[in-house]
Amino acid sequence: IDNVWIYFGTGRYISKMDIDDSAQQYLYGIKDPFFNSKDTEYHLNYSKYRELTRANLFRSDTVTVTTSGYVLQGNSLYGGFDKLESDIRGNNDTGSYFPGWYRLLETNGTASSERVISKPTLLGGMVLVPGFTPDSSICGFGGRTVFYGLYFATGTGYVKQIFDIQNKKYVMIDGQKQEVVEVKSELHGDGLPPSSAGIHIGRRPGAKALMQLSTGRILELELTPPFYFRSTIVD
Question: CB-hemisphere CA count at 13 Å for 145?
Fold first, then answer.
């Protein structure tokens, strides 16, 4: 979207003290102001830098997207997906925009909180990143790994399922049942995730994400990215 984006998560897993860390951690997607033409003060300006706080960013974990294109913010109807993306881009009546998004990862009281210790992977308009929750049990395998798939510009689901979801969820909007787009895969496993996920693209439609955990188990996830990502002839 006419910008260079930076994606990263917070948290660490280096020492034993990190295992019991229950602090809130986050995922971020931020537009680099140097390449953002809407930031006229910073665009291609080597003498300037911009400092952001979470208050400047769009909070995406409160948003639910349906496969019909409806968007809920909390329990309230936000509008359509086009409006959500337009508001973040700044293509709205007010001219205001968000320089990025963030989402809260899971916490469980005083227990270990979910964090990101792997690099995000981008493919076809989606950001793929493993989320890791340490296990303090001596019988555990280091922790539990899940997989997030987020639309790159909003940090939410897209208007179609990215993952192959078996147990689908639904919400009622204007008296009609709407299918919820999942941002976290149902496939998860015990063990630490790799430094980043591997992506396999074959002849079949879509793609496959591969993650080998510290236990040796390999997680394989079928993916359907928002955008067409194969090379093709352009007229």
Answer: 29
